[in-house]
Amino acid sequence: MLPSVEVYILRMVDLIDQDRGEESLNLLKSLPLAEAEKVSERLSIWARLVLEKEADNSEERKTQMCITKTLVEVLKFLLSIQKENPLKEDECKANLKNFETLASLQEDFDIFISVKDYGNHSLMSQLLEEHIKAYESIRSMAKSRKVQATNSKDDSKTKNRSTESRLYRLALLLQSTEQELGAKLALRSLDAGKIEEALKICRDFYEHHCNEQTGKLLFLACQKLCHMLEADVPMITPKGLNFPAVINEMACQAATICSPDLLLDSLELCKYTLAAKEIYGQCQIENYGFIAKAASFGADKDPYEEWTYDDFFSEDGIVLDPQMALPVAYETISSLVPLADNKMYPLDSASVANSPFIKGHNLLLPVKTPICALLQNLMECSQCELALRLIVCLFGSCLQHCVSNNMDMRLGEKLHEGKMLADAKSFLIAMKQKSTSVIVAAVLALLHKVFNCRLIDHNLALGYCTILPKEDMFENLWKVINNTRQNYNKILAVALVGAQLASHYGEAGERQKFEELITDAEWGIQLGKLGISFQTVFRQPSIRKKELIRTLVQNLNVDTDLILKYCRTFILDSDAALQLCIETLLLQSANANQVEGDDTVKQPHSTLLAKSVKIIPLLKSTKDLVISLSGILHKLDPYDYETIENVLKVIQRADENSTSIQLNQALSLLKHLESYKRTSPPVDLEHQYILEHVISLSPAAQTRLPFHLIFFRTTQCFWSIISAELTEESFPTLLLISKLMKVSLDTLYMSAARHVFEKKLKPKVFELTKAGCSSVINKETTKTVQTIQSYLLSIVNPEWAVAIAHKIAQELPTGPDQIQALKFCLYLAEKWLTNTTTKDESHEKAEVLLKKLRMQYQRSATETVLITHKLSTAEHLKLTGKPANLIVLLYEHSSINQRIQNPTSRDYPDIHAAAKEIAEINNLDMNKIWDILLEKWLCPNIPTDEKTQSFGDVQEDEELRRVIYLLQPRTMDYSSRMLFAITTSATSPIGVNQLTFAQRSRALKCLIYLADADTVESLFKKPIEKVKYFLQCFIYLAEFETLNIPYTYESFHRSPKEGMIKGLWKNHSHEPTAARLVTELSLEYKVYDPQLWSGLLQKLLGFNMIHYLRKVLIAITGVPSLWQILNFSQAWRSVILAPFLAASCPPSPKQLEACCECFVVLLKCPVLADLDIIGIARQYAQLDLTAFALGCLLLIPQTEKREQQIQGFLSSCNAETVLQQVDEHMNTGEVAGFASQIRCLILDNIINEKQYERFLKTKYFPLLKLQVMNTHRVKELVDYLANKNCMDDAAALIVEYQKRCGNPILADRSSCDILKMFLSGPE
Questions:
Q1: Alpha-carbon torsion 571, 576, 579, 581, what sign?
Q2: Interior CA angle at 685 toward 681 and 686, to 5°?
Q3: What integer is the mean pLDDT of 1031-1056?
């Protein structure tokens, strides 16, 4: 019988084989601890044996997975019961860890290995390598987007191997660290040229696993990259990556965290990768894929950098070619830090500098070629600073390699072969010679570059100099100085370095030379900043330095302290220099003005004066200065006020008592002259002065007055200059100058008045007079006139004042301005007369002058009034000396009649205003003149003729029109009462004559014309109709009075009118007055006796009273009984044909008006049948008045004859001319209705004749369209428009016609649709 342990083992194995691991575990836990421990240990051994068998299919793999998982739980249970036995507990833990690892490999990575295989490190490394390859393959496929899902058996081994994290987990399971896997991945990426992946791995490890292993990884990656760059291996680098900087950064990171064994190699790598980085910075990179050095400020700046280096020297060299420089640089690095061929042991080193001699292998030989090539390239490209730094490092590494392996010569001979030592020694000697030549050449070149910088690094230059031999050093420094002309900064820097070196080497002579040079260079720099050239006296003896004082003084920014310092520095006489300084300052601007093309910056005169005054206290004696400046003053440009003022002020400040010049007066004169701007060119006297003193005429002479000629010369010279300058604007200043110079002010005022008038007012007077202006007094000239008057009023001598004022007035044109000037002359003369007494000699002279001026004033003022009111005819101007007669003549002006007949016109002269002004000027009584004129024209003693007979109204009587105008200025109350008094009185209230009926009727006519009805009724106490009848009776009585027939108002009123008329006709029919009187009485009292009227018409024709006859015929048209009179038709014919007798073609405006009136009379003629209408039409046609001719034809009584004549006329006339004459002459008045008839006749003829073409583009086409619509003949015009392609016009006509007919068309229809609808419809 088997032991219970064996049974349990078999049972548990069976359960595990059936994938019932949980039941087997429960069984194990139910056993006693001792048995459970034995069973667990036996199961562990069994599982090891089973797992050693390779699983060939999925079932076997599944069984192994179940065994492994179950064993993990079994071992965990076993570990829990092994607390008291530490040895077994450790053994159990180890077994548990192995089985857990195997379970993870089986479940997560589908890897089935035995416990024995798991302990084989080479097998684990092989498995990891396979999975790394699979990982890289899957990543490549993913990037190329060609990944294909597959479930084949061959692919099962690579299950879930695509992620990097799983790969790292697998590495841990396969007993490799993350750093080891990272190193493999990084190096494999580098081998594949995938730089970005490798850099990412290194960066991640440095950030998250900063330890010695990561340091080794970074070192190896950096070393690998250097060798790849040396071999120019193809690689993929990120765009814009500064590769050398990244490599250097990796080397530095490696040096910070690597192990002590790797530290020396890392430092060497850091040193040379930094050099490669700097070489790369000097290369021409097309995409500029490098990081420029950022400027640091304040707290961000590296203190070591700030304290150690000057930041203003940057070497300028030729840009390196990266294709040439970088491979050689990395070849040098690879030769100095080669890859390790064998396993590295503690304290081993890969770098040449720290490596021991190797038998049969010279480590220095690979270094020689790249070093020489690199240095040659750098020197050829003038990268001296980089070459110097690199040669020192390279030679140091080589020297360290040789010296560290041969510390003792004897020992070295024993340890190493003789050939190896000889080779190392010869290499070092050659390297030393090469290094020395490169260093000297680089230092010399760098010295030149340092000294040529804008800011020179003295310490750096001093350091470079100490490298050179003493003799060569001084020689080179003086060569630099001699080859440098005016670059004082460079000279100063070189001199400072030379002085320090001379002091260091104890060379006193050299030091003194350099210190003198330093002094000159410092002054060159200081004066150069002020714009002063120091070249002429640079490195010259001190005595030559005096030549520069004048230049120093002329500079804007040089002060006295600097000049004194300059004198002290170069041991010059300060007192003489200061006096020269003052003179130079004062004459600086004067000299600059005289030198053409002088570009020297001029200092303000105030600055020059301030500098000069500031220097005066520094002088020991001012006497020589005052004497010198007094002489200089007379030689100065007379227009250079600023220099003159400065000289005067300096003399005043130095010693005022040492000169005879009136300084205060001179300075005051200068103040006035400075404020004044000259208006006239220099006079001959000035040119003469310029020639005498041999100076050029300054441009300021055009704007300034000469100081010397005004201040130092005579009064005559003064007036020669001042007279030409007198203007309204300049006078105040010139007055102050004259007062200051104590000359005659009357002369100044007279000259000023005359000059201002001639130059400013007189041209304006003629300009405005030429432009038609009556007066020149406006806003612009008022001030000038007032200025001239103020000058004249300021003259002390009254005779001079009147004389100059009268002369100015005489030169003014006749008009209001001359009147005002003469008034001012009168004022001055009256003022002169008032200020004298009868005893004075000038009193009589003043009286005579005043009388002459007053007479001239009255004549000129009267003439001006006539000119102002446009009444300056020759007839009127002759009467300017007789003002009363002139006023009477003015009221007889023709414009008075015109203004009564046509009051709307505005071009009539104002006779009242002119007469009133003339009366005021000549001291006349205007009321007396008016009364004389009223009596003359209202109550004339001369009988009236036909033109002024009593039957006419005010409009027809010229004298009554003058009376009406004469009464307009009077009040209505005065005028109406005066006229009423004349009407009702026997004698004239304005004269001594007896009043006739004619005079009284004239007064009543004026009263009714002027006054309104209420005023007239209030005066007569009768209704207005009775007053008018009263006037009518007075008119008839006046006519009887003319015929010497004694009638009174009462006798006329009582007498029978028909008998009176016939008696009058019987006795006085031979007189035109009687004929008109009889006609008026017959019409007034309706006496229509045919025999009487036959005689009247005959007499009116005989007396040629055509115009009056026309009125009479129109008046009796309403009396049919008179139509039968024999000469009735003859009278009509004569009246109608009268205008044609004097008319010509083309008719004048007056003749045209008469012809138009004739047509109106023709329309009123009651006996058209007795007239030759066709003949009258021909008369109109001959005058080219076709519209009136057609109108005459329309008046033919016979229908057939009328139609015939009209048709013949229409066929020959110009229809457009007829329409135009209708518009111009027949659209208003009594013929307006007849005009429409003529227009319709013409338009109908156009439609009948289809003459649309002639009127299509004329202004009469709208009338034509209206006519066709009124006559319903639209279709004809529509057809014409359609044929002419005027579709829109045709459609618009149809729309308008249909609207008038009450059939509006919808607005949305097109022109074609409207046309088709209309043409296709019924008529």
A1: negative
A2: 55
A3: 73
